[in-house]
């Protein structure tokens, strides 16, 4: 049985050197590549053609990257300029698929890291979707609906050339929800003179969106966590959970946790952390976040028995299980030590790469269960693919039909992770399991497609 060894395979060190040289100004992309490649040694030993065909270097180079100017007018009539991106990373398993992020921290390196992760995540779902990501350094916070609409229209004026239901199918991510997808779709329709339903996912349910897409990422995170816990003979019922973020993924992670009998004791966002006795009042939080686009400081004022800690991270709140659902590198080594000290037993990642490499090392050493993002948050893109399927067949499935498929997909992903962890690393090393499981399917397809 092949097992990981401490010395890296030469193909990995060589590729890491090249990737480092080519992308030295993109730290998060380098972090994501390193994290994956370092777990692939045993697979390369088992399949020497991976090295012979230089598959690793090919995999780390996006097939295509697009960067464009987005000029738009704000409500005061001023002309603003933002930068738009789309990284079409790998189309070996299907049309490019991955969300759009509108956030001031977006740059090419961030989009490349997200696109790279997306390749493996999409592969793990077992569905036929390639990996991509896009977005802009536009900050929707504090913008009027009209401003958001004008920005989305200007963004689509360029992006429309590169997407299509069989070419590249964007969806939402941070700062992009059903409102933005609606404006983007409207402009795509105007420019192409076609109602091409499958060109975007995360649409509103009334005109082509899938039921349960809004809930899918968060629900999927909890279904994955349930699988992790069951394998250890544990469960969610009665357990104290903390969740970072209060956006789409965080909200529906909290919802499912509460439905399954866990107590969500705290959540957070950029303004700070909120704790509530008896558990977070989810309906109120959803209203503040989704309907009113307000932060948790506002929620804390309205929620009975809530305590607000301005600027504080959520990780200092004692819990059994932690769910980082906000953004990359939001949980560092100090936070990880705090979680361990407070008796936390599992970290299940809802956000993409929320833990730093140092944090992962601390959590692993302490023996915590870790649900890696590539696997745990794959439910969102999986249901996006189900939305594409419904659009292609002019069908509309019930919430229960979609939710049942989501649960099954998350279970399959868990089984793939378990199998690959046992075969190529160690029992419960779900990080290696997810990386290898995602990689194998992509590698096999790249080999069959030849050198293109
Ligand atoms: P949203 O924009 O809906 O929510 C993001 C939340 O995180 C907000 O509450 C935001 O707070 C908070 N946040 C952002 N940055 C920080 C920070 N530095 N510190 C504390 N809180 C912060 O995004 P999503 O919920 O859609 O995405 C969250 C994560 O999940 C991202 O990593 C995304 O890539 C990933 N993901 C999303 C999927 C989806 O279907 N939406 C699918 C798979 C992964 P504030 O509002 O104050 O900025």
How would you sum up this structure, described in words?
By secondary structure, the protein is of the alpha/beta class. It has 3 domains: 10-60, no CATH class; 64-194, Leucine Dehydrogenase, chain A, domain 1 (Rossmann fold, 3-Layer(aba) Sandwich), CATH 3.40.50; 214-376, Rossmann fold. The protein has 18 helices and 12 strands. The chain has helices spanning 10-22, 27-37, 41-46, 49-52, 55-60, 108-124, 145-159, 178-192, 213-231, 248-259, 282-291, 296-302, 333-341, 357-365, 373-376, 379-392, 399-424, 430-449, and strands at 64-73, 79-90, 96-102, 130-136, 168-172, 240-244, 263-269, 272-276, 306-310, 321-324, 346-348, 369-371. It has a 7-stranded mixed beta sheet with strand order 9-8-7-6-10-11-12, sandwiched between helices. A 5-stranded mixed beta sheet has the order 1-2-4-3-5. A hairpin with a 5-residue loop joins β1 (64-73) and β2 (79-90). Bound molecules: NADPH dihydro-nicotinamide-adenine-dinucleotide phosphate. NADPH dihydro-nicotinamide-adenine-dinucleotide phosphate is lined by residues 172-175, 217, 245-250, 268-271, 295, 325-327, 330, 350-352, 377, 380.
């Amino acid at each position: 049985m092949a097992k990981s060894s401490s010395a890296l395979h030469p193909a990995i060190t060589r590729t890491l050197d090249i990737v480092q040289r080519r992308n030295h100004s993109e730290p998060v992309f380098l972090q994501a590549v390193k994290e994956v490649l370092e777990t692939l040694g045993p697979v390369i030993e088992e399949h020497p053609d991976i090295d012979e065909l230089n598959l690793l270097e090919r995999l780390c180079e996006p097939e295509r990257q697009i960067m464009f100017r987005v000029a738009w007018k704000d409500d005061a009539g001023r002309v603003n300029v933002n930068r738009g991106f789309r990284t079409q990373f790998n189309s070996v398993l299907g049309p490019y698929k991955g969300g759009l992020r509108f956030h001031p921290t977006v740059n090419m390196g961030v989009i490349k890291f997200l696109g790279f992760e997306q390749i493996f995540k999409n592969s793990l779902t077992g569905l036929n979707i390639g990996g991509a990501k896009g977005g802009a350094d536009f900050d929707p916070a504090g913008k009027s609906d009209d401003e958001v609409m004008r920005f989305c229209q200007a963004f689509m004026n360029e992006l429309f050339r590169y997407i299509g239901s069989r070419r590249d199918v964007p969806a939402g991510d941070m700062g992009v929800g059903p409102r933005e997808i609606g404006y983007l779709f409207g402009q795509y329709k105007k420019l192409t003179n076609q109602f091409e339903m499958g060109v975007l996912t995360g649409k509103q349910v009334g005109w082509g969106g899938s039921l349960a897409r809004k809930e899918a990422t968060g629900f999927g995170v909890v279904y994955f966590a349930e699988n992790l816990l069951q394998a250890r003979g544990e469960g969610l019922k009665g357990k104290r959970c903390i969740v970072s973020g209060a956006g789409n993924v965080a909200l529906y992670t909290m919802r499912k946790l509460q439905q399954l009998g866990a107590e969500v004791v705290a959540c957070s966002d950029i303004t700070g952390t909120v704790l509530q006795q008896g558990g977070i009042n989810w309906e109120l939080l959803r209203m503040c976040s989704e309907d009113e686009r307000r932060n948790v400081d506002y929620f804390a004022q309205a929620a009975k028995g809530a305590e607000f800690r301005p600027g504080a991270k959520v990780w200092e709140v004692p819990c059994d299980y932690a769910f980082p659902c906000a953004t990359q590198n939001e949980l560092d080594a100090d936070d990880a030590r705090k979680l361990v000290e407070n008796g936390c037993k599992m970290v299940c990642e809802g956000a993409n790469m929320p833990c730093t490499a140092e944090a992962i090392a601390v959590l692993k050493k302490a023996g915590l269960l870790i649900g890696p993002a590539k696997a745990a948050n794959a439910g969102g893109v999986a249901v996006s693919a189900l939305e594409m399927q419904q659009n292609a067949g002019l069908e509309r499935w019930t919430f229960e039909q979609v939710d049942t498929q989501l649960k099954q997909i998350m279970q399959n992903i868990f089984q793939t992770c378990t199998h690959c962890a046992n075969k190529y690393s160690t029992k419960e090393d779900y990080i290696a399991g997810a990386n290898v499981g995602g990689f194998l399917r992509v590698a096999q397809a790249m080999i069959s497609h030849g050198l293109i």
